[in-house]
Amino acid sequence: MQFHTQKNAPAQKKDFNTAASVMDNSSQRESLQRRADLANGTAQQVVQRELNSNQDVENEDRTQYEIERDKFKLKDQDGRNQRTIQYSDGTTRNVVLYFGNDICAADESACLSMFEHWLTQLVKMSIVIPNDLEIYVSNNFTNQCSYNFDSGKICLKPSSINSLFDSGKRSTIPNIADSVPYAYSGDDKTKFGSAVIMHELGHVLHEKSSVNFFKQKQTPLIDGHTDRINSAKKVSLYVCKGEQSEAEFVAEVFTGLSNGLCFDEDVVSLYWQFNGPRCGELIERENHKYGFRNSKEMEIPD
To answer: pLDDT by residue (tens digit) across 84-140?
Structure first.
């Protein structure tokens, strides 16, 4: 299946990088050694330490991903779903969705619907993803998470997504009920799951667009920055939690922008301050709110 879209519009601010696809530069020898380490039980957990560069993030994410990936067993060949997005200049981006053998038919069908809706949003908002992005689905994972190395990996846990959605619906977890994915989706679980995927993609793209991602992943958004509270409240209660980082703020705002939501100027300014991924032209809409320009608005009239 092919999806067609326009190429990203030029950035309005030259000092912020656009999200770009990433070549796989990892060595086969290093990968094999890591897998051997895992098999020998020498990498059972990731040591939490201070991150001093984006390369530190990639190294730790690679190790953690391989621990999680070891829990994954491909369902069968039917568990591999590849999609190709083709852009107007002829370039393409591939993304592959893999289902684990523990996923029941109902969860597989639900996740496929979320995946297809997510792809539709990528096209609608002209968001260029890293080529060969991989998404894995299994209830054996610890949680849904993104991993920032190579072209990026995303792990999804359907039981967790279902629980979060139901908790938000019952307001038993207030910060989930007041998160961007839930605000965008309402009572639609497909939209909620699609927004969760978009949130994880936001982390992947943020690491590519910000040389300071490693700092933003470790720095609390609010702690010591009371001036940010009002901006955070305009996004979601989720990012107002004391332990949430600057990177979580970026992922939440990116999720909203990528799903057609608009934010006040102070929110967008903070997003730019953290070098949030630029995946489409930001335009001002009514009431001084800003959002990504969608693909239809980019079309040139006959």
So the answer is: 987 666 778 999 999 999 999 999 999 999 999 999 999 888 888 999 999 999 999
Residue-wise pLDDT for 173-212, tens only, equals 666 667 898 888 888 999 999 999 999 999 999 999 999 9
Residue 300: pLDDT band with limits 50, 70, 90: very low
Give me the residue label for tokens 């096209």.
Answer: 123
Looking from the CA of 221 toward its CB, the CA atoms found within 13 Å total 29
pTM: 0.81
Rounded Cα distance between 161 and 22, Å, is: 28
- 105-124 and 158-170 helices, crossing angle to 10°: 80
Instruction: Give the Å distances, CA to CA, from 27 to 32, 34, 66, 218.
Output: 9, 11, 15, 28
Of 183, 184, 167, 170, nearest to 117 by C-alpha is 184
Other C-beta atoms closer than 10 Å to the C-beta of 50 total 7
User: What are the structure tokens assigned to 84, written together?
Assistant: 């190709």
Taking alpha carbons only, the member of 144, 143, 193 closest to residue 166 is 193
DSSP 235-248: T-SGGGSTT-BHHH
Q: What pLDDT is recorded for position 76? A: 80
Residue 136 near residue 69 (C-beta atoms within 8 A): yes
Q: Where are the alpha helices (DSSP H) in the chain?
A: 28-39, 54-69, 105-124, 158-170, 174-177, 180-185, 189-209, 213-218, 229-233, 246-258, 265-273, 295-298
Q: Which amino acid is at 97?
A: L
Q: For residues 246 and 202, what is the distance between their CA atoms, to the nearest angstrom?
A: 12
Q: How far are the Cα atoms of 211, 222, 269, 278 from residue 229, in angstroms, in the given order?
A: 25, 6, 14, 24
pLDDT in tens, 33-77: 444 443 344 333 444 568 999 999 999 999 999 999 999 999 887
Q: Which of 66, 206, 86, 199 is nearest to 136 (CA)?
A: 66
